[in-house]
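Hey, can you fold this one?
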Amino acid sequence: MSLAAYCIICCRRMGTSTPPPKSTTHWRDVRNIIKFTGSLILGGSLFITYEVLALKKSLTLDTQVVEREKMKSYIYVHTVSLDKRENHGITYQARKELHKAVRKVLATSARILQGPFADTFSTIDIEDHECAVWLLLRKSKSDDRAARLQAVQEMSETHHWHDYQYRIIAQACDLRTLIGLARSKDSDLRFFLRPPPLPSLKEDSSIEEELRQLLASLPQTDLDECIQYFTSLALSESSQSLAAQKGGLWCFGGNGLPYAESFGEVPSATVEMFCLEALVKHSEIPTHCDKIEANGGLQLLQKLYQLHKDCPNVQRNIMRILGNMALNEHLHSTIVRSGWVSILVEAIKSHDIMEASHAARTLANLDRETVQDKYQDGVYVLHPQYRTSQPIKADVLFIHGLMGAAFKTWRQQDSDENLTEKVSEDESKYTTCWPKSWLARDCPALRIISVEYDTSLSDWRARCPVERKSIAFRSNELLRKLRAAGVGDRPVIWVSHSMGGLLVKKMLLEASKKPEMSTIINNTRGIIFYSVPHHGSHLAEYSVNIRYLLFPSLEVKELSKDSPALKTLQDDFLEFAKDKNFQVLSFVETLPTYIGSMIKLHVVPLESADLGIGDLIPVDVNHLNICKPKKKDAFLYQRTLQFICDTLAKDLEN
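Sure. Predicted structure:
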């Protein structure tokens, strides 16, 4: 302003002054013009330099501060200076207009350079290095399924992003993308938000009491006998335990008689297990799953899961409940919102095969983008547990026998070294499940499934005393579950141990009578029997001889040599297998097995293991180890692998 005033005064003086002599006036005018022009140029240069520096300072960001602030997910707003002197005057107005013009130029260039964002993300103010994050997010929500799968794969293979960029994906992606990342092997754990804070327990309440209330809130009528048994057992045991916690079971004149002094206290963990076993059974009923969710069951189970990190049995039962609930697609969004996905991702990456397989089952049931099959309780995919680009061309099913399990039956044979040393994470030295560790590596184009069902030697030890399931009943139950898992859509090989072989025979015979199960028969290529008592077992004979002491279970009774059901099964299946030209390989033990510390039995003799077709190979092991190879290059495993590869040769080539 002072510079402009000075210039005006000079001009006025020049205009009002008397004309001097001609020569003097000429040079004086030149000097005045030079002074005026120089002052104007100098002042303008200083003003422009000042404004440029001020603008540069206002647009220059401390990148370290920005990185730290982005991690906090703050929302940024423009601040106004509190100094009133800066908010008035021509200088302030000029700076404001200049900054507005620069912002328009920057916005225009951003729209030009970031044209691919059109539509949803066209107005997002992002930096160039963040374009990939938002482009992948947009691609993951495409209507094209192939594009969505490609986006998820690219996200899972990205390991160079900043922490806040993973958090952007975690907060902005949809359910479909989140589950896809959870089922991608190399996904970074930062893609998954931690579970939200869990509601605190009610005053004067406990986890055990809330579990009991959840169980009591479920329908108690028109239930299977076994569900009724587990429910009543859990409710009665929890009632006794709660009475003990509150100071007494009975009261006499106001004085409580402590439960611990009367009958003995029921451990809290035991009561929780009773409740969880009952909830597992209830969660097999879709309408009961809705009740569990509506009554806060997902949060309560999560709290219990975190509380019992050192108790695998509790965690597995919780995973079984969650896996059953995931069979109901309308509950998927609720399961995801409750924060279970991050827990499942950590579990599926565990080196514990049982923990990983339970989590893999739940995530597969949540993944409706790449998985059409549904895995019901007791059906576990050992391979592939993640999404894979490897085409799956055939199924291999493992069915355990009496007192077996989906994982422990198929472990590597125990040795002194394995028993004394801690099991290494290196599966080439020891594996707790050779189908998952060895077979999956040798034949990656196979889907490997292991089935689990409850069995017992005696009704004394039956998990559900009112449940007396015959081989026929179990075979129909397993057949239904396996068909729901898509068994029959591809070529199939069955691998069975002991009583599991009888179940396989019965399942195939039953499937042949049902048109909807015909694909299972048509796609069955071969069967491997590990010491299957086709003609009965010495174990059954021993159990029946001391039946008044042992009370043998129905399964054991059906294994006796004089069982009419066993003879009919053998005759019918032999004729059926010959007609269908199934490939068969049988192994049989030659060594006796110790049952407890005093009983020594040759459980399945050579003549009983002979189906009548296929190869029968005696092996110098006992009944328990007939399906447990000592190492990967052992005869048992190599012969099994050869049979699978030879039988499926044409299918694997196609």
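The mean pLDDT is 81. Let me know if you want another pass with a different chain boundary.
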